[in-house]
Automatic annotation (TrEMBL):
Family matches, as Pfam families: DDE_3
Protein name, UniProt field: Tc1-like transposase DDE domain-containing protein
InterPro entries cross-referenced by the UniProt entry: RNaseH_sf (IPR036397), Tc1-like_DDE_dom (IPR038717), Transposase_5 (IPR052338)
Taxon lineage: Eukaryota, Metazoa, Chordata, Craniata, Vertebrata
GO MF terms, alphabetically ordered: nucleic acid binding
Tc1-like transposase DDE domain sequence ranges: 16-120
Coiled coil segments of this chain: none
Length: 166
């Protein structure tokens, strides 16, 4: 998952912003990286190869997983689908205009709060604060997010596709 990161520091004239990619599962935090280029399918495959694959291997070994991302166009590119298929990674299918049920959105929110509390004042401090905060998120929190998926789906069904608390 990727996230555009914006953070205002107390002494910054302009808000600082970074793009990050990170992953999580019910087993805990996966890898995270700061992205310094624009994202297209080729860059996304490189990110998956460099950060997702080692995270899967560390957390699941040879076990099977279902990979959930957002529906960004670069995530749906043929080269990305081929990459995932070649590595036997099943990608969760969902409609393009569906409610965002991805638990990592809750993780981004928590991470932003943690980083805000560190009050970074420049991009370098922001990157450091993000990395430190990422490492502080524990497995119990990640498991609670993963286990919330049935409730998330039920809430969307009950709301007939409308807004939910998630």
């Amino acid at each position: 998952m990727r996230n555009k990161w914006a953070e205002s520091g107390k002494t910054c004239k302009f808000p600082q912003s970074l793009m990050i990619w990170g992953c999580m599962s019910g087993k805990g935090m996966g890898e995270m990286t700061v992205i310094t280029s624009s994202i297209n399918a080729q860059v996304y495959v490189e990110i998956l190869d460099t950060f997702l694959i080692p995270s899967i291997e560390r957390m699941f070994g040879d076990g099977s997983i279902i990979f959930q991302d957002d529906n960004a166009s670069c995530h749906r590119a043929k080269s990305v689908k081929t990459f995932l298929q070649e590595r036997h990674i099943m990608s969760m299918a969902w409609p393009a205009n569906s409610p965002d049920l991805n638990p990592i959105e809750n993780l981004w929110w928590k991470l932003k709060k943690m980083v805000h509390d560190k009050a970074p004042t420049c991009k370098a401090d922001l990157a450091t604060a993000i990395r430190q905060s990422w490492r502080q998120i524990d497995e119990v929190y990640c498991l609670s997010l993963a286990e919330s998926m049935p409730q998330r789906i039920q809430a969307v069904i009950k709301a007939r596709g409308g807004a939910t608390k998630y």
